[in-house]
Amino acid sequence: MTSLTDPQKDRFRLSMLLYDTRYRSATIQIIALIFFMLVAAWLISNTAQNLAALGKPIDLGFLTEPASYDINQRLLDYDSRDSHLRASFIGLLNTLVVAVLGCATATVIGVIVGVLRLSPNWLVGRLMTVYVESFRNVPVLLWIVFFMAILIETLPAPSAFRGDDPAAHMLLGDSVAITNRGVYIPEPLFSNSLGDIHLFGASPLRFDVSLDLIAILAVLGLGLWASAWIRRRADGIQEATGARPTTWYLRLGVVSVPLAVLLLMLGFHLGMPELKGFNFRGGTHMRNSLIALWLALSLYTAAFIAEIVRAGILAISSGQTEAAAALGLRPRRIMSLVILPQALRVIVPPLISQYLNLTKNSSLAIAVGYMDITGTLGGITMNQTGRELECVLMLMMIYLIISLSISAVMNWYNESVKLRER
Amino acid sequence: MRKSVFLGALTVAGLAAAAAAAGTVDDVKARGKLNCGVATGVPGFAAPDANGEWEGFDVAVCRAVAAAVLGDPKAVEFVPTTGKTRFTALASGEIDMLARNTTWTFSRDVDLKFEFVGVNYYDGQGFMVPKALGVSSAKELDGATVCIQTGTTTELNLADFFRVNNMSYEPVPIETNAEAQQQYLAGACDVYTTDASGLAATRATFENSADHILLPEIISKEPLAPLVRHGDSEWGDIVRWTLNALIAAEEYGVTSTNIGELSAGTDNPEINRLLGTEGKLGEMLGLDADWAKRAIMAGGNYGEIFAKNIGESTPIGLARGLNAQWKDGGLLYSPPFR
Predict the structure, then answer these.
(1) Which domain, by its residues, includes A321?
(2) A162-173: pLDDT as tens digits
């Protein structure tokens, strides 16, 4: 019997890094990485050197200096003596407001338009095609400016509401004023308010949260939870006995009665806008800039979402619709119970990038003077302090964080609507 | 060099390469054109006319510098800048000088690393309101909506003015003078505030300019000055002394009409030095002897430029006021050409 001797082990030689397929790819990657890092280091040191030569080394100290400018739309307290960091924070909140409002509206409009575009009704289908094509083929900046111009030029100025025989009137029993400076709507007020919680003390990121709002949300949440519990119980009874108990008044009651009691205890009333001096005072002022930006971003992005929804629906085979119809489902229920839940799996991933686009497009706000993070940190602060590099880097970092957060949330949602495979 | 330009362009905001290089005057001569930053359109100060030729009070400074350095007042590439983009444009080297009614302040001079070469217009911030509003003083503006160009010193003055007088207001930030005009005329803001000269210039373009008044309060000092980048003193000197030449020319009575005969030589040695028939001032600047003569011939002396673009005979109708020569009770005072 012969035995095979082990092949003599190759001693490791340097040339094997290049000629041995086991090592080659790692070698190439390491060299590429080193090269990339060298270039990055060169860029960074070049920038730092040139900034030092200009006498402007990187320094974030300017953020604590007083901002000295005013911001019209502020969700938290702010005045011109607050720091640049505070001003940026106010701007960040304004960005988030328009992004959240825009995403929600764009989704609703997009889904409706996407479904209607497939409608067998010739006129409805064509109208939706016209909408989609006209909005997505014109740059969003033009839409923003266009909406702003319409709002400014066509609506009456507050002075038109003045006098014995005013040229313009408030709507809905003198509670809503639509002017070319924005829309004034009643604001909710509480005469027995619970006050605010002050978070983060006196720092630039201080944040007041209304206890009234928390109480209302808590009661509403509990009511909805109770309502869901009643529904599950009814499901149980229906499965056991075949007869479903009538529950709608119970479910309505557990949501609305505690809420009504709470609002009564808090002394809820509406603060009406009133023409005083140059402007309307009181009420909530939704500025033109916000409305124009919100409308333009939503309608523009909705056109893309509509196409995504249409694609998602078309991806579900028509056999599903026919099978559901054969079971006796009405067209609306076929859509909501059979088609849309399956289409969601196709719709959600491209939807994420539309949300990201909308959020990033909100930086066009400066075109209409909406004070978002680009207008504050990347606009006035940058201009007044001359810290271009710091401001732009911070701005990029902030948008990156916002975008990654949206992605994370949407990926989690995508995971939850995914087809469960067994 | 090629490589460093390419990679430098990659760095964020393109900050790196261009700024550090000295020798702006050599760059301008090599290019054969002066890149001059101006406003996006303020009638009288910087606006294209019907033929697309830029003209105005600030534009005249650019033309004078181009005439002094390149010998041709038309060799200017005008770069329209907004209140927000102007400093980045200058710092990054996109423009060689900025003549865009820019207020000379400490932090812009020292912290933003610019060099203001001298004041070409002494201004102050004012307010314009429609007559129909029935307001006669800025102290009555509590609660008003105010249109304001963003990224300017006026924005900060406005905040301080309302704060000190314990009044509230609603700022409407806008990017350019044209947008401000649109919003103001549509009644989207009650008040438009900027430098008083800018207000007068804007009002002059209104259809019913008599329906709008400037309030008497001037709430700030706004010395408007051309500026260049810090760190290139040779170039700074050229722009500074070109401006001084225009001012001195008015003081000595040198105009675009009599400059031909005066440059043959006069009894006044100061005029002779200015016009290059005596001394070597041009050589000291790195230019030829006729530099100031060409600068003055480009658009006339300071007084002629003022009268032609914004003076009382124009629709803008600004009085000389603080901008008269020191001999006439104004603040214009050129250091001696010696």
Answers:
(1) 64-166+287-417
(2) 777 777 777 777
Pairing of strands A268-271, A187-190: antiparallel
pLDDT band per the 50, 70, 90 thresholds, residue A3: low
A253 with A365, same domain? no
Could you tell me if residue A50 is inside a domain?
no
Digit-coded pLDDT (tens) for A323-346: 999 999 998 889 888 888 888 888
Among B13, B142, B159, beta carbon nearest to A392: B13
Residues A376 and A295 in one domain: yes
Residue of A nearest to B18 (CA): A50
- Does the beta-carbon distance from B15 to A153 stay under 8 Å? no
Q: How far is residue B58's CA from residue B226's CA, in Å, rounded to a whole number? A: 8
Residue of A nearest to B143 (CA): A278
Instruction: Flag if A53 and B174 touch (Cβ within 8 Å).
Output: no
Same-domain check for residues A72 and A156: yes
ipTM of the complex: 0.77
Strands, E assignment, A105-220 = 177-179, 182-185, 187-190, 196-199, 207-210
CATH, domain B125-220, list 1.10.10.10, 3.40.190.10, 3.90.550.10, 3.40.50.10950: 3.40.190.10
Nearest to A279 among B132, B133, B170 (CB): B170
Which tokens sit at A338?
């059979």
Helix, strand, or coil here: A267?
coil
